[in-house]
Each structure stands twice: as structure tokens, then as C-alpha cells.
Amino acid sequence: MPLVPKTRGVLFLSLRGERMQVLKFGGTSVNDAAAIGQVVSIVADQRTSDPRLVVVTSAMRGVTDLLIDAARAAAKGDRTRYRDARLILIGRHHDAAEALVHDLDELNRLQSVTDE
Length: 116
Prior knowledge:
This protein has 116 residues and is of the alpha+beta class. 55% of the residues lie in helices and 21% in strands. A 4-stranded mixed beta sheet has the order 1-2-3-4, covered by helices on one side. 3% of the residues are buried.
């Protein structure tokens, strides 16, 4: 998959001669609900001008470290620390979803997935 040079901080990929725009968000841009809301606006704006859009995101700030800590705790048999980390992760994602998803049925469906 050949890469096309960046234009204005956006990466373009060429696949079978067709150009696709790739937007990557990480760090503070996916830190919390407010930041994710900004990402949603950017993606929505870009999608209207370029429907061949690929969006890549990192985990919310601190999530990767928390997952690693939880995995280490689980490996050591520390169920309390593992469960605490799980509750923190679920809480952060529920908070973000509650701020961003306004359809109650969709919110409940989404939160049931994060609870698994």
C-alpha cells in the first residue's frame, strides 16, 4: 500500500489507485468526552468532503498504563487491584459515553458492551 505524502498534517494512502484519507487521533485528543467530541466534529467535517476516510484512535489517556497495571496485578493474583482497575476503566468509558451519546437505547447498548 503506497503512501502519498502528507498534506496539511493528514496522511493519504493509495490503494489500487484510489486515494484514502487517514486521520489518527491520540493523546490529549482522546483524553475525555469533550476532546472526543472535538474528534467527532473533525471526522464529520472531513467525511463530508472525503467519504474514503479511515479513522485511527489511541486509547484514552492513561488507559494503556492502567491495562498494563491490571494485567500485572492479575498475573500476580492480586484480584483487588485488577478489579479496581477494571472499575476505573468502565467508569471512564461510561462517563465519556454518557456525555456523547444522547440516544438512551444506544447508550445502554454501548454500556453493556463496556461492562463485559
